[in-house]
Amino acid sequence: MSSVVGLDIGTYTIKAVELKKSGSTFSVVRVATIPNAIGRVLPADPTEREKLIALIKSSFAEFHFPTSRVRVGLPEAMVSTKIVQMPPLSDAELASAIVWQAEQYIPIPASELQLEYQVLYRPDKKNLSEQMRVLLVGVTKQIIDQFSTMLFESELELAGMETNMLALYRLIAIEPGLPTTMLVHFGSSTTEMFVIHNGELAFVYAYPNGGTVLSRALEKGLGLDPTQAEAYKRTYGLDGTQLEGKVRDAMQPVFKMFVAEMQKALQYFSGSHQGVQVSRILLTGGSASLPNIIPTIAETLPMEITLYAPFANMSVEKGVEIQPLDMPAYAVALGLAMGGDA
Question: pTM of the predicted model, to two decimals?
Fold first, then answer.
């Protein structure tokens, strides 16, 4: 049976997950995390671009990933995502109306826009009191072309491309009896947040800061070089009992901004959904495993907060080892691979 590889190219690391599917069950064949020394997802500089292509090619060879059926993620910083409400329409009517909706909500000129949309909820057309809800995802054709070309030059067969947020949504939405949940994905450059309510994607938001700004706070506050700052961040995190609390104190003012954005997202969702409250928060991404991150968030947001374990309900083939604290970082790559009907 053929497999699918989910490829998450981040500014700090590149994550890859290979899945096989048997019936409705997924099996994890291999995973890998590769440092991205270039620090770019789509380098504009030709030399950096060639280095990234060489890194992807060598990594697939080193870790024995298949080069066919690769699905790649689009970082939220490169796309525009919006949930819009419309009168109930048929598929044909929606196809005609969607371009006008995109002009209103997606800040990309029509001539440059690659648009995808998905109906999240469609009431009966006779029910005039309810609106249908549609997810719009827009990206420039140039970015699509750049990703496609980079994967081609990396000698990979591109089987699909979607936003990181949609990959995460697929992963979370399979949970039976899912309570109203906000997922917070701490990436290197951005932090994505979305809420699932009644099994439906109900709110999306991308905060344009990620784990990198925490590392920079350590560089500035403690006089560390970038490598030292990253190591201190991941080793000591927000734990005030370590190093006399100096690492926590240097990051705390910046991390408070992340928590404030989470609080705003929760308030906006509740205000737009008749006071419905989020029951829990799931954390994913490379910075989700920082020491003491959950108690620090809970000081402001006293609710159930959990480090998401995306491999918990999957079989893992012999020889594949994934440490519990590493699991959240693979969430996007895993969700991408799941979308390929391995």
Answer: 0.92
